[in-house]
UniProtKB/TrEMBL annotation:
<feature type="region of interest" description="Disordered">
    <location>
        <begin position="1"/>
        <end position="25"/>
    </location>
</feature>
<keyword id="KW-0560">Oxidoreductase</keyword>
<keyword id="KW-0786">Thiamine pyrophosphate</keyword>
<dbReference type="InterPro" id="IPR050771">
    <property type="entry name" value="Alpha-ketoacid_DH_E1_comp"/>
</dbReference>
<dbReference type="GO" id="GO:0009083">
    <property type="term" value="P:branched-chain amino acid catabolic process"/>
</dbReference>
<dbReference type="InterPro" id="IPR001017">
    <property type="entry name" value="DH_E1"/>
</dbReference>
<dbReference type="InterPro" id="IPR029061">
    <property type="entry name" value="THDP-binding"/>
</dbReference>
<feature type="compositionally biased region" description="Basic and acidic residues">
    <location>
        <begin position="1"/>
        <end position="10"/>
    </location>
</feature>
<dbReference type="GO" id="GO:0003863">
    <property type="term" value="F:branched-chain 2-oxo acid dehydrogenase activity"/>
</dbReference>
<comment type="similarity">
    <text>Belongs to the BCKDHA family.</text>
</comment>
<comment type="function">
    <text>The branched-chain alpha-keto dehydrogenase complex catalyzes the overall conversion of alpha-keto acids to acyl-CoA and CO(2). It contains multiple copies of three enzymatic components: branched-chain alpha-keto acid decarboxylase (E1), lipoamide acyltransferase (E2) and lipoamide dehydrogenase (E3).</text>
</comment>
<feature type="region of interest" description="Disordered">
    <location>
        <begin position="378"/>
        <end position="404"/>
    </location>
</feature>
<feature type="domain" description="Dehydrogenase E1 component">
    <location>
        <begin position="59"/>
        <end position="352"/>
    </location>
</feature>
<protein>
    <recommendedName>
        <fullName>2-oxoisovalerate dehydrogenase subunit alpha</fullName>
        <ecNumber>1.2.4.4</ecNumber>
    </recommendedName>
</protein>
<dbReference type="Pfam" id="PF00676">
    <property type="entry name" value="E1_dh"/>
</dbReference>
């Protein structure tokens, strides 16, 4: 192992929160928190959320973790081809979904898909996107974990990092030009801040004061690159200073703190106050994706340390302390969620592939004559059976079996 890799591991394994300025004195250098380690809330920063909001936040975080666990299992069984879980990072997406209004837009990265569920996207259609079958509103055209849905104004992200940020800022610019009240939220990981699109987006947002909130989920690892090797800045949030964008650094495992910080930023954008850049300090407890083995680049001790800051466990302690949740209620909640998820998976997995004619959908507002002819020809031919005697013959040299 190279010397700089050893140093990177050493830095990444240290406790990430060194003494910092107060969040109200230097919000892009400090760390805004509400929940204390014992589950109590700091009265100076507590957003005083209603009990039903707190319980919903807990339920939503539990649901997305259970979904991620099942999808990773299905991927290992070969039933879906890819999965990217957000274990340990649920608080950011759930808090964001709770503060947005119906007409707001979301441009996610890999680990924010659950915002769709918080905003009312059907679980069945959400899970169908993993399978890419007839239940998928994207008609099987995106790889799994790249969810989107027009019904909830969430736009698919690209696996090319940070490309969604200029899109988010552009959509916010359009909202400003149209004088509507929609706010746009765009997400990026800590690794994506090294991409040109990150800088283009912040510069445009700062110059034109568009109604957007840009959120960096700093989970400390851009696949195998630790944040210590990603930037020399004191924080990621401080990068906003160069673009004139007010920036805040928040505890990304504290859903109450996130609710307040993201909520304030959304309200500011909606009132004409311009953009905000938020660094959500969190940790990816699982693998980068089902294609990754994190044991090759980080220690179990580091993972165990962050597991003590699990956002779900922290909110649970708060709810129990306030008398809003007990063991029986939590067991019933989890049982209900597991039944809901299992039923959706069973229903979706039984569906066939997207209909052949959908190949021609969503290409033109009005199908041109040559595509109309092709569509008619496709529909006039009987479909091939999958794997049976009616399947088309394989070209010479093509082996049987599943491809890569």
């Amino acid at each position: 192992m190279h010397e700089h890799d050893v140093e990177a591991r050493r830095v990444a394994s240290q406790a990430p929160e060194a003494p910092a300025p107060r969040a109200d004195e230097a919000p892009d250098l400090g760390l805004f928190r509400v929940l204390r380690d014992d589950g109590s809330a700091d009265p100076e920063t507590d957003p005083a959320l209603a009990p039903h909001v707190l319980l919903r936040a807990y339920r939503e975080m539990k649901r997305v973790r259970l979904i991620d666990t099942r999808m990773m299992l299905l991927q290992r069984q070969g039933r879906v081809h890819f999965a990217g879980e957000c274990r340990g990072q649920e608080a950011t997406s759930i808090a964001t979904g709770l503060v947005l209004e119906r007409d707001d837009w979301v441009f996610p990265a890999l680990r924010e898909s659950a915002i769709m569920l918080v905003r009312g996207f059907p679980l069945r259609a959400y899970i169908a996107q993993y399978f890419g079958n007839a239940g998928d509103v994207l008609k099987g055209r995106q790889m799994p974990s790249h969810m989107s849905g027009r019904a909830v104004n969430q736009v698919a992200w690209s696996s090319c990092m940070a490309t969604q940020l200029p899109h988010a800022v552009g959509a916010a610019w359009a909202a400003k030009m149209r004088k509507d009240k929609a706010v746009v939220v765009g997400f990026v990981g800590d690794g994506g801040t090294s991409e040109p699109d990150f800088h283009n987006a912040l510069n445009f947002a700062g110059v034109f004061k568009v109604p957007c909130v840009l959120v960096c989920q700093n989970n400390h690892w851009a696949i195998s690159v630790p944040s210590a090797r990603q930037t020399a800045s004191a924080t990621f949030a401080v990068k906003g200073r160069a673009y004139g964008v007010p920036s805040v650094r928040v505890d990304g495992n504290d859903v109450l703190a996130l609710h307040r910080v993201v909520g304030d930023a959304v309200a500011r954008a909606r009132s004409g106050g311009g953009p905000t850049f938020i660094e959500s300090v969190t940790y990816r407890m699982g693998a980068h994706s089902s294609s990754d083995d994190p044991t090759r680049y980080r220690s179990q001790e580091e993972v165990d340390m962050w597991a003590q800051r699990d956002p779900i466990a922290r909110l649970r302690r708060h709810l129990v302390q306030r008398g809003l949740l007990d063991e029986a209620e939590e067991a019933a909640m989890e049982e209900g969620l597991m039944a809901e998820i299992s039923a959706a998976i069973q229903e979706v997995e039984a569906l066939g592939p997207p209909a052949r004619e959908t190949l021609f959908d969503d290409v033109y507002a009005e199908l041109p004559w040559h595509l109309a002819e092709q569509r008619a020809e496709v529909l006039s031919s009987p479909p091939f059976a999958t794997g049976g005697p009616e399947s088309p013959p394989k070209p010479p040299g093509v082996a049987s079996g599943r491809g890569h």
